[in-house]
Design brief:
With 379 residues, this protein is of the alpha+beta class. It contains eleven helices and 22 strands. The strands form five sheets. Strands 10, 11, 12, 13, 14, 15, 16, 19 and 21 form a nine-stranded antiparallel β-sheet that branches. It has a five-stranded parallel β-sheet with strand order 3-2-1-4-5, with helices on both faces. The protein has a four-stranded antiparallel β-sheet with strand order 6-9-7-8. Strand 10 and strand 11 form a beta hairpin. The longest helix is centred in the middle third of the chain and has 17 residues, at 225-241. It starts with 9 loop residues before the first strand and ends with a strand.
């Protein structure tokens, strides 16, 4: 256990969004001081910690910010890695390590990592431009992903046949075989500096058909114990091969023949772990803090089955956010509302989430649908 912990460490968080907000909320009980850097002056974290308004990819801004912190972490991968490497050279702790962030920033490098380490994943080809994608038309149906800068469903196009080739990105990317999958699951795994590793139970994700981001999820995933065990082992292998310290979300497909294929990873708290705040003994946010501070990892067991509904801005509405149906949702048992402090709503913008806990799985799913249909965010 780090002695610095008892001196009320200052943790610098690159990114001031909702993930950083919930990380700060988890750390306040431990007398942790936080500093946050974000380009949005009204970011969700702006009033919760010492706040610096600057670009996350600005080398000088990140370097100067990190100098005043004992430890630096992230809530988004799009940060200046070279500045983080320099901070490590200057003696600062940066978790996850800059090399891990650098790998995740480029999906092409990420895919080659899976290939090299025999991590199961979809067949893929690396492409440099739209012409190369067209030259591989025999590989269709496939998913075309930007190598860099894709986020929250952006930078992904499904190419089912030649008519879709016009949608291909004219930048370096990956052409991935379109997978016939039964379920999409996520396993969150943590590792501290001592090498202790723990996973959270797999959750099942349901994606929004238009926005291509998680609409709601259920914990535990409705999968066999064999699939669950294999998914957890894959997550442990990845974080160990990366020698990573921190929290890692591993998104996977479960195929009809019950194989597991890794889709993508995120080296930070993740949308697929929000429900752990109420549904598990240790939340993903507390676990991330335990990992980066080299403290004992917490018990990840479920308290009760849970569901999480993402609160997305309604299509067709942009402006100051108004929450319709909030009182109706709060009347329901086992329902916990988390709003992210974003003043402006936009179509499909993540404005908050709702966790539902219930011992009855059928009731859990019913409540999740009621929440989804009742609580609306409009301007």
């Amino acid at each position: 256990m780090s002695q610095a912990f008892y001196r009320q460490p200052r943790i610098g968080v690159l990114g001031g969004g909702q993930l950083g907000r919930m990380l700060i909320q988890a750390g306040l009980d431990w007398n942790i001081n936080f500093s946050v850097l974000d380009p949005d002056p009204q970011a969700p974290c702006c009033s919760l910690a010492s706040f610096t308004n600057a670009n996350l990819t600005d080398y000088d801004a990140v370097l100067e910010f990190g100098r005043s912190c004992d430890l630096i972490t992230i809530e988004i991968e799009h940060v200046n890695v070279q500045a983080l490497k320099e901070l490590v050279r200057l003696g600062k702790k940066v978790f996850p390590q800059p090399e891990v962030i650098e790998l995740v920033q480029d999906k092409r490098v990420q895919k080659r990592f899976y290939e090299k380490n025999k991590i199961p994943t979809a067949d893929f080809l690396l492409t440099e431009n739209a012409n190369e994608v067209a030259a591989h038309r025999s590989f269709l149906p496939a998913v075309h992903k930007l190598g860099k800068e894709g986020y929250d469903g952006r930078g992904v196009q499904i190419l089912r046949d030649e008519k879709d080739l016009a949608k291909a990105f004219d930048k370096p990317g990956i052409l991935e075989k379109l997978i016939d999958f039964e379920k999409e699951i996520s396993v969150i795994v943590a590792r501290n500096e001592q090498g202790e590793v723990k996973t959270f139970p797999a959750v099942e994700m349901v994606f929004h058909p238009e926005a291509n981001l998680v609409e709601y999820l259920f914990s535990p995933a409705s999968i066999s114990q064999s699939v669950a065990s294999r998914a957890e082992e894959v997550a442990k292998r990845i974080i160990t091969e990366l020698n990573m310290v921190g929290l890692l979300a591993v998104e996977m497909f479960v195929t009809p023949d019950q194989k597991i294929l890794v889709n993508e990873i995120a080296p930070r708290p993740h949308n697929s772990g929000h429900q752990t705040i109420e549904g598990n003994i240790t939340s993903q946010y507390q676990q991330h803090l335990r990992a980066i501070l080299n403290l004992p990892l917490g018990n990840t067991a479920m308290i009760k089955p849970s569901a999480m509904v993402n609160l997305l801005g309604e299509s067709g509405y942009t402006g100051e956010a108004a929450y319709h149906g909030l009182a109706d949702v709060l009347k329901m048992d086992g329902v916990y509302v988390h709003l992210y402090g974003k003043k402006i709503t936009k179509p499909f913008r993540k404005m908050g989430h709702v966790t539902i806990v219930d011992t009855d799985i059928a009731a859990l799913k019913t409540k999740a649908n009621v929440v989804k249909e009742t609580l609306k965010i409009r301007a």
